[in-house]
């Protein structure tokens, strides 16, 4: 058996694994990267990239065939950045195959043993299938297969009203499909209900049907015809069924017990430094059991690179991590929602709001539906919710504010170009300070007193 000794061994070439590999190799560490599937992982091949490409194509009225060609072209354009050739050019040794632990600090892959000072598990996640009788016996779609669908679904049933389900519902409706979303609870249940209502209303106006509070009790069918029986006795029929009910960490085939790595139902058990129960083994991204976003994996990669290469006690935080549902309108959130903030801070919480309808650029471009809501405690934002056009871009300012623990005065002091949607954030800050300045009798007395002495 061949043996490789290295500083860092990374299992998984998705967003997190690639970020660690690139950063560590360019700073002088010996790096081995192991990947059994496609380079770039889920995000490039079956997640963020194809879904956003399909949403764009659907909004641009490309038609079914052209839309899917655009998806393929988008993946192909980005793929070289994640390719074996690029990473080998950076000095990374790339091994294709399934890795399994064979000891506390070594893994084996296709007859080769890799012994490393530090090992990073970045194997991501896979679609979670709910326990519905018959579901595993019928042809179904997940995010891993829906972008390869050759024919137009007529109609498409979507089980799950989270971000993936909602984005695919709107995209396929705009591509001419009848779409029904089946959600046992509430769609986008993690988000602000007022913001969710705008998203849902928009999709309903486009023709998407919703079955909220509908629990599937049985699924049956074959290629070209699937039936979902609900708990109220009704049966929904479609040509295809997309299951978008969350994801589960990919840990089963790693033989983690041989490395003394503990797991939980959510994934690898890690501490604030993203170390597992084996201090030589780290886990990042979806497999670490936390927030399942590509940008989280990239952020966590930076945390562990500082720890592994420089010995710094870097810790991962979550309060400043944004999330976005890329429907039209977009729904973006960072930090606490209003309900979470009220539970945490009670009467000390202040909430300010700015509507798109009060923004001149929104009026000029006829994009006035939506709002920004900022939750503030002791002068600092603790959360922000935005729903409207470009919300995913604009929430970045508030992610910075939470990350740097900025005060609302920093946002109020910002000069935004006119007319832009970005002025919504400055308006929210102005709304926070207006009663403190304009309705404060002490301020008025001070102004009058100063005026008596100003030449």
How would you explain this protein's 3D organization?
Pfam families: Pyr_redox_2, Pyr_redox_dim. Residues 321-428 form the Pyridine nucleotide-disulphide oxidoreductase dimerisation domain. Belongs to the class-I pyridine nucleotide-disulfide oxidoreductase family. Keywords: Disulfide bond, FAD, Flavoprotein, NADP, Oxidoreductase, Redox-active center. The chain has 455 residues and is of the alpha/beta class. The protein folds into 3 domains: 2-39 and 83-127 and 248-310, FAD/NAD(P)-binding domain; 135-245, FAD/NAD(P)-binding domain (3-Layer(bba) Sandwich); 322-438, FAD/NAD-linked reductase, C-terminal dimerisation domain (Enolase-like, domain 1). It has 14 helices and 23 strands. It has helices at 15-26, 41-46, 48-59, 64-78, 84-89, 163-174, 193-206, 294-310, 338-345, 360-364, 391-403, 408-412, 423-438, 441-453; strands at residues 2-11, 31-35, 93-96, 100-103, 106-109, 112-121, 125-127, 156-159, 179-183, 209-212, 216-222, 225-230, 235-238, 240-243, 247-249, 263-264, 267-268, 281-283, 322-325, 330-335, 349-355, 371-377, 380-388. The strands form 6 sheets. Strands 1, 2, 3, 4, 5, 6 and 18 form a 7-stranded mixed beta sheet that branches. It has a 5-stranded antiparallel beta sheet with strand order 19-20-23-22-21, sandwiched between helices. The chain has a 4-stranded parallel beta sheet with strand order 10-9-8-14, covered by helices on one side. A hairpin with a 2-residue loop joins strand 11 and strand 12. The N and C termini lie far apart (90 Å).
């Amino acid at each position: 058996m061949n043996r490789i000794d290295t500083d860092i061994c990374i299992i998984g070439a998705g967003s997190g694994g690639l970020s660690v590999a690139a950063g560590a190799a360019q700073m002088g560490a010996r790096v081995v990267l192991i990947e059994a599937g496609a380079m770039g992982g889920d995000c490039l091949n079956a997640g963020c990239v194809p879904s956003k490409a399909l949403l764009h194509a659907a909004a641009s009225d490309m038609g079914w065939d052209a839309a899917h060609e655009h998806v393929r072209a988008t993946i192909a354009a980005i793929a070289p950045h994640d390719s074996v050739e690029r990473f080998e050019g950076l000095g990374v040794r790339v091994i294709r195959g399934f890795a399994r632990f064979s000891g506390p600090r070594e893994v084996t892959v296709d007859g080769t043993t890799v012994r490393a000072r530090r090992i990073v598990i970045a194997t991501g996640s896979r679609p979670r299938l709910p326990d519905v009788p018959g579901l595993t016996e019928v042809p179904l779609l997940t995010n891993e297969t829906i972008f390869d669908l050759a024919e137009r679904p007529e109609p498409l049933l979507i089980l799950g009203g989270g971000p993936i389900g909602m984005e695919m519902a709107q995209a396929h409706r705009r591509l001419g499909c009848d779409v029904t979303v089946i959600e046992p609870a509430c769609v986008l249940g993690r988000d602000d209900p007022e913001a969710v209502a705008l998203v849902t209303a928009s999709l309903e106006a486009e023709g998407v049907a919703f079955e909220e509070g509908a629990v599937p009790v049985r699924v049956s069918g074959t290629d070209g015809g699937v039936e979902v029986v609900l708990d109220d006795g009704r049966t929904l029929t479609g040509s295809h069924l997309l299951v978008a009910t969350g994801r589960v960490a990919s840990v089963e085939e790693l033989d983690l017990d041989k490395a003394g790595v503990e797991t939980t139902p959510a994934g690898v058990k890690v501490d604030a430094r993203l170390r597992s129960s084996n201090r030589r083994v780290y886990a990042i991204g979806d497999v670490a059991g936390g927030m399942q976003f590509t940008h989280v994996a990239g952020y966590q990669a930076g945390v562990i690179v500082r720890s592994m290469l420089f010995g710094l006690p870097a810790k991962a935080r979550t309060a400043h991590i944004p999330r976005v549902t890329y429907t039209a309108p977009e729904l973006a959130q960072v930090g606490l929602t209003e309900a979470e903030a009220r539970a945490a801070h009670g009467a000390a919480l202040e909430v300010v709001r700015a509507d798109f309808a009060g923004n001149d650029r929104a009026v000029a471009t006829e994009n006035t539906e939506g709002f920004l809501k900022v939750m503030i405690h002791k002068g600092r934002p603790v959360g922000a919710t935005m729903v409207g056009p470009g919300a995913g871009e604009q929430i970045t300012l508030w992610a910075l504010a939470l990350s740097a623990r900025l005060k609302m005065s920093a946002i109020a002091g910002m000069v935004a170009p006119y007319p832009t949607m970005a002025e919504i954030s400055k308006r929210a800050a102005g709304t926070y300070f207006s009663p403190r300045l304009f309705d404060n009798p002490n301020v008025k007395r001070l102004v009058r007193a100063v005026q008596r002495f100003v030449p």
